[in-house]
Amino acid sequence: MAADAGLGVTALQGVLAAENAAVYGYGLAGARLTGSQQATAQQDWNLHRAARVAVSSMITQRGATPAPASAAYRPPFAVNSAASARALAALLEDGLVQAYLGLVAVDDSALRAYGAGEMQAAAIRAASWRGSTVAFPGMPSSDLK
């Protein structure tokens, strides 16, 4: 039982890290977007802020301390246009799909259900930002060869 709890906390810490990165990244992306895309980015930013609080609470409830967010994050590419902002938002959501996938693998049925739902939501947001879907959301393309 303790090992399962540890795996759950480890997976939750991974989700928290991805949510922290998303909060930071949506701040960068939102600065380059206008109109309805900026409103969507702000909505997603708020959603990730709330998710960060919820995941931190889940970690605390399991007797662990949530890992702190980094002071800053380095984007994987320059975010200097609306197109690069949309690409960053899609990438952030892809990272969340991967992080929530870690919850689906734990023995705790409540965490599995939560992870599955959040994976689906992140995959939908990623597809919206990307303008298309991917065959296996959350799986690096190198693993599909």
In short:
The protein has 145 residues and is mainly α. Helix content is 70%, strand content 0%.
What topology emerges from the helices and strands here?
Layout: H1 2-30, H2 35-61, H3 82-104, H4 109-130
Helix pairs in contact: 1-2, 1-3, 3-4
Shape: globular
Question: What do the pLDDT scores average to?
Answer: 91
According to DSSP, the number of beta strands is 0
> Which percent range describes the beta-strand content?
under 5%
Low-confidence stretches: none
* Termini separation: 36 Å
Number of helices: 4
**Radius of gyration based on Cα positions:** 15 Å
Largest sheet, described in full? Answer: none
Classify the helix fraction into a percent range.
55-70%
Secondary-structure content class: mainly alpha
Order of helices and strands: HHHH
List descriptors.
mainly alpha; 0% strand; globular; 4 helices; 145 residues
